[in-house]
Design brief:
Number of strands: 12
Oligomer: single chain
Strand order of the largest sheet: 2-1-3-4-12-11-10-7
CATH superfamily: Class I glutamine amidotransferase (GATase) domain
Radius of gyration: 18 Å
CATH topology: Rossmann fold
Order of helices and strands: HHEHEEHEHEEEEEEHEEHHH
Strand content: 15-25%
Number of domains: 1
Helix content: 25-40%
CATH architecture: 3-Layer(aba) Sandwich
Structural class: alpha/beta
Largest sheet: 8 strands, mixed
């Protein structure tokens, strides 16, 4: 087994454990969201695959059904307002597909995009709201902080002594806010190094909304910066009031903490979308 294969197996295991913690906490703290998440059908979540990011791996860890749709198929796809459309980085889409997405969001649909889709989807499709600041990042890892604590999408994402660090893919696109966009998650380290601190932004367009994240949503590595990060994953489960999984043996708290924060955010988005359309 090569080092890269071993690292990938570790990340997938960390995501399964992080998603398990997220689901158990949601059942306890937000049972209506947990029930809505369990009712999701494959047609509710459409995923446009990317050559770089793989949000579908986070969906797999949450055991959430979804439907893959090729970029070219978006031009003629029947998109419905109750759906969540995920566009992975890089987001190379035709002008006609962008027009369909813009109409989909205006009609009540939800769009979730990552990294280079900032330039390829959001700038041309929703001009004047957010943009790439032309200062691509290095391969880096930064601490992240909640900016909008009252936003329901952030329920259970970070609390207490949580101190997650998120990966920045080399040449990730920092987000410059130009218009009416809410910064949900930020990073002081990101701002200091690359000029803009937003990590996750949310904005409305017509009856729908757009959520965008810098870098790759499937975090391919983390850093164990503190003594707390380096303790066992079982300690993280204990912090969150859930039982530890035997599968998590050998993982660190930092591995699972980073995975749980991204898994819970996506779980919240999907559950609240499902509840809003009931």
């Amino acid at each position: 087994m090569t080092a890269s294969t071993g690292d990938e197996r570790r990340r997938r295991t960390a995501y399964r454990e992080g998603a398990r913690v997220a689901r158990e906490r949601m059942h306890r703290e937000a049972p209506l969201d947990a029930e809505a998440l369990a009712r999701l059908e494959a047609a509710d979540v459409l995923v446009v695959p990317g050559s770089y990011d793989h949000v579908e791996l986070v969906l797999d860890s949450l055991a959430t059904p979804y439907t893959r749709i090729d970029p070219g198929a978006l031009e003629g796809a029947r998109l419905r307002p109750e759906q969540l459309l995920v566009v992975n980085c890089p987001g190379h889409l035709s002008p006609r597909a962008l027009e369909r997405i813009r109409g989909f969001v205006a009609g009540g649909g939800s769009l979730f995009t990552t990294d280079w889709a900032l330039k390829h989807v959001l700038e041309p499709g929703f001009p004047g709201v957010v943009a790439f600041n032309d200062r691509p990042t290095g391969d880096d890892v930064v601490r992240v902080e909640i900016r909008e604590h009252d936003n329901p999408y952030l329920d259970g994402v970070m609390d207490g002594s949580d101190d997650p660090v998120w990966w920045l893919e080399g040449s990730s696109y920092p987000i410059r806010v130009l218009g009416e966009a809410e910064v949900l998650i930020a990073s002081r380290e990101l701002g200091e190094r690359y000029g803009e601190d937003p990590v996750a932004v949310l904005f409305r367009h017509g009856g729908g909304e757009v959520l965008h994240m810098i870098s790759h949503y499937y975090l391919q590595r983390t850093e164990l910066r503190t003594a707390r990060h380096r303790v066992s994953a079982a300690m993280y489960a204990a912090e969150k009031g859930v039982s530890a999984s035997p599968e998590a043996a050998g993982l660190s708290l930092g591995d699972v903490e980073s995975a749980q924060t991204s898994a819970r955010l996506l779980a919240n988005v999907m559950a609240k979308k499902k509840r809003s359309r009931r």
